[in-house]
Amino acid sequence: MSPSVAMRAAALTGLGTFLLALPLTVLATFVLAWSAVLLVGASASQPLVSFVYGMTDWLVRPVQAIFGRPDGPPTVDAPAVLAALALLLFGALGVAGVRAATGDPNPTG
Fold it and tell me: Do the beta carbons of residue 70 and residue 78 sit within 8 Å?
């Protein structure tokens, strides 16, 4: 493989992993923000809180339907944390898939 082809393949791998990992990481951050907002007991009528709920409701509600929502005083929302971990796992698997599909010999960099 010539150096220019190798450089293009490396650029393609880097772009693919970036485009896959960035949205999943941002969504995982919003899901963890959901849990933090619940923990501090912020009002859902606040614009930032309603934005976080609106961005992540479609991800957290199905997990809450499976595992239930905690009752009582505010605690860490386990379904939200599990949804964030699932997003990060899907991102890691997707990045590994992109690297495998492009034949990237350097899985760490």
Answer: yes
- Determine the Cα–Cα distance for residues 18 and 76; give it in Å rounded to an integer: 30
Beta-carbon contacts of 61 under 8 Å, excluding residues fewer than 6 positions away, are none
CA 62 to chain centre: 15
The predicted pLDDT at position 73 comes to: 72
pLDDT at residue 108 in the model: 57
Q: What Rg do the C-alpha atoms of the chain give, in angstroms?
A: 18
Contacts of 38 (CB under 8 A, 6+ apart): 74, 77, 80
pTM: 0.76
pLDDT band at 89 (very low <50, low <70, confident <90, very high): very high
